[in-house]
Amino acid sequence: MPAIIASRALDIQPSWKSELSQCISSVSELLHCLQLNPEQLSVSQRATEDFPLKVPRPFIERMEVGNPNDPLLRQVLPVTQETEPAVGYSPDPLDEIQHNPIPGVVHKYDNRLLLIVSPNCAINCRYCFRRHFPHQENRQSKQQWQQALTYIRVHQEINEVIFSGGDPLAANDNFLGWLTEQIANIPHIKRLRIHTRLPVVIPSRIDDAFLGWATGTRLLPIVVLHINHANEIDTAVQQMVQRLLGEGMLVLNQTVLLKSINDRSAILAELSEALYDTGVIPYYLHLLDPVAGASHFDIAGQQATQIYGQLQKQLPGFLVPKLVREIPGEKSKTLMAQNSNQSDISG
Fold this sequence. Notes:
By secondary structure, this protein is α/β, with parallel strands linked by helices.
């Protein structure tokens, strides 16, 4: 189990905003917290100029002190490989700019669309496929959001809206509540999906204010978390998920297959078991989107399918996420392997 590097007073529950404001943005401070020597790692300050370091302290507390290969540390530490050019890796690997018809909207699939609700994240994952996305160009006021709402009203084939970002839960609850109410007033929208990593890295984000607007309309709310390793799930995360489940929400998880972090079937099996024990359904296992700066995380498709085949042998079908790749221009995610156990619920 990861060592706890700092303890919190049991009678003080910090708000998510205060924890967000206390994120570590200094490489030297991060390494000092973990008692690591920079010479042990190929750390690159230059990489932070393009994509800053940002890590919440609750997430750091789950890292193992003195371990330069900690799987949570590897996800956030800027390294020299990020600055090296790699063929086939681009700033916009999913061609999202072509599907950004108006500010705030990404519409790639027929019956659902993404709203870029917030340009900010609580954590800067080094493999993020939107690390180069023009978030500032998609920042809007309530008045400007009316254009996006009109777009949704006109496109009656859309029945699901996805809050994305950045991280949508980095936005203010008053704004999120207003936007959710506006969407609920559009008759052909049935579901609100919230794609977020913030409650994983700062579990206190799931508070009464969030639950109020997320469950306060006729829309069916679905929360899709982003967890890549079982070590990310601690008691606070478990309690956070229980709050979501207690309100009747469906809670799913997406994982990215990452070299030297979770690229073994045993690690992925442990993650699926930990997710299910927490009440979260394993949903997708993504191959890395080839974004510039993240080539050192990539795994060849053939190796990925081999890992996946091993995973299928270790788990019942309901614990095996779908292995997918997102291909620009396609109208759905592409399955990279068939889950032969998918129908075996008792397996």
